[in-house]
Design a protein that fits this description.
With 462 residues, the chain is an alpha+beta fold. It has two domains: 289 residues, Aminopeptidase; 122 residues, Alpha-Beta Plaits. The chain is built from 13 helices and 18 strands. The strands form five sheets. Strands 1-2-6-3-7-17 form a six-stranded mixed beta sheet, with helices on both faces. Strands 11-13-9-14 form a four-stranded antiparallel beta sheet. The radius of gyration is 23 Å and the shape is globular.
């Protein structure tokens, strides 16, 4: 497929402009104020798949936001690759920390991306990486090099826990039948060193509410005499970790599978510079669970983090009140063998049990999913590694990701398919953060690499 590089270079300006147009639509699934934009994005994805060469594309209604399904069938006797991605994005907040408006994409050069990067919400997670697959299909159709059948399933609720995806998958197993699932919603080590994600953490996401008096109170008249929900909540949250940063919820670690010393040594071979890591985040030191290094803490160990906390008066100036209520959103990243529903139940039971007299506590589960580990001896992994090697000039390194894609475990359970995670983003691309971006090098390299995966997967499947 020597022509793929020439094709990408010939059409790169169009590829970039098409992605920029998609990024202008604020498809924030978490906020109903953007509902119209989410539906508009589904329409745009449908149109792009049709233009790329799919024989059949439809917008499938679900209990939530729609799923865009497309397919290109050339021979029912050939393998079928199912591409998964998502067109929804994270909320852009806090907007004041963006250097440019999150839905007005701009291209800027950076130290890591000297060729330029597209700055916009969703540029890397996941519109940019999803759109690589659309353009890869375009190339294979135009060049008549598509070696197998392909299906696309692009959802609009990934950032809110893929609420409707299990509903859709369970009802469309024949439609979604495939030989391998291909996802680009992860990253790689660097622009010089590709990697294949072989493990994902699970997720449990909850919201907690602590309620004290029946109204906000004057802190002079009532301070010291009634429980302050904000004080109580912060103390309860602080107690969830001990001095070694172990999580204190009873039973939390019971099913955690420890990696062997050999496996940990293999992980340590991946390039990682702690000083550069701290510099990139403007930190004077790292932090985490005792007994583990940074690359283990953020991938193979479970975590508990507060994602948001609020209560009382937060406006300009001062208001001396004891708030009636305090709230927090908490996520727990889980490792394989930890069941997210069981962990949610353990958290709920424990958090309510540690509440002092004078307040009531509620825990509201939001969403979650299981962790996932994929073997490195599968045809899919070998095909991905060969594709990366040809494009980048070096073999890919298998890595565990700290992120979560809960639907991967769902796919294996319902569709009996293995998933290959071919990511092209970088940790420094600021996904979920202000100034999210995606390197133009990475975007175009993805379009070059994906057709090679198709080629080698079909060859190795014979």
């Amino acid at each position: 497929m020597e022509d793929i590089k020439a094709y990408v270079q010939q059409h790169k300006d169009r590829f970039i402009n098409e992605l920029i147009e998609l990024l202008k639509i604020p498809s924030v699934s978490a906020d109903t104020a953007y509902s119209h934009d989410v539906f508009e994005t589904a329409d745009a994805v449908k149109a792009s798949l049709e233009k790329a060469g799919c024989d059949f594309v439809e917008i499938c209604e679900t209990p939530g936001y729609p799923i865009v399904y497309g397919e290109k069938t050339i021979d029912s006797n050939l393998p079928t690759i199912l591409v998964y991605g998502h067109y929804d994005v994270q909320p852009p907040d806090p907007i004041n920390l963006w250097d440019s408006p999150p839905f007005e994409p701009v291209i800027k050069k950076t130290e890591i991306h000297p060729e330029g990067a597209i700055f916009a919400r969703g540029s890397c997670d996941d519109k940019g990486q999803m759109y690589m697959h659309v353009k890869a299909l375009e190339y294979m159709v135009q060049s008549k090099t598509l070696p197998c059948n392909v299906k696309f399933m692009i959802e609009g609720e990934e950032e809110i826990g893929s609420k409707s995806l299990s509903w859709f998958v369970e009802r469309n197993q024949e439609k979604l039948k495939n030989d391998v699932i291909l996802i680009s919603d992860t990253g790689m080590i660097s622009n010089q060193q590709p990697s294949i994600t072989t493990g994902l953490r699970g997720l449990s996401y909850v919201e907690v509410e602590v309620t004290g008096p029946n109204r906000d109170l004057h802190s002079g008249l009532y301070g010291g005499a009634v429980a302050n929900p904000i004080n109580v909540l912060t103390k309860m949250i602080a107690s969830l970790h001990d001095e070694d940063n172990h999580i204190t919820i009873p039973g939390f670690y019971d099913k955690v599978q420890e990696l062997s010393l050999e496996e940990r040594a293999e992980m340590a071979k991946a390039p990682f510079n702690l000083d550069e890591y701290k510099k990139a985040l403007n930190l004077n030191d790292v932090y985490g669970e005792k007994g583990y290094v940074t690359n283990e803490r953020n991938s193979i160990r479970p975590t508990l983090d507060v994602n948001g906390i609020w209560g009382g008066y937060t406006g300009e100036g001062a208001k001396t009140v004891i708030a009636s209520q305090a709230f927090a959103k908490i996520s727990m990243r889980l490792v394989p063998n930890q069941d997210w529903e069981e962990i949610t139940e353990l958290f709920t039971k424990h958090f309510i049990s540690i509440a002092p007299a004078g307040v009531t506590v509620k825990v509201k589960p939001h969403h979650g999913g299981q962790g996932y580990v994929t073997p490195i001896d599968s045809i899919g992994y070998k095909a991905a590694n060969k594709a990366y090697t040809e494009t980048f000039g070096v073999p890919a390194i298998p890595v565990r990701s700290g992120g979560s894609i809960p639907i991967v475990a769902l796919f294996e359970k319902e569709l009996k398919s293995k998933t290959i995670l071919m990511g092209f983003g970088l940790d420094s691309d600021a996904i979920h953060s202000p100034n999210e971006h995606f390197g133009i090098f990475n975007y175009l390299k993805g379009i070059e690499t994906i057709p090679l995966f198709y080629k080698y997967f079909v060859e190795m499947s014979k």
